[in-house]
Amino acid sequence: MYAKILVAICSAESISQRIGKLRDEELQPQLIELLKGFMRNWWIITCWNCMKLKTKSCLQ
């Protein structure tokens, strides 16, 4: 029984390490790129709205 518990603990630790490695090496860079894309889109939308406001005020 004790041996089975040790094997289960080692397996859980191994899986946990693989999950951490996956998070750090693959998911985090993808998340950063996604957030950069959101920031770029918000910047474009903000600039577009500012240009629309400036054009509107010039026409009035």
UniProtKB/TrEMBL annotation:
Highest taxon in the source lineage: Eukaryota
InterPro entries: DUF632
Protein name per its UniProtKB record: DUF632 domain-containing protein
Domain DUF632: from-to ranges: 2-44
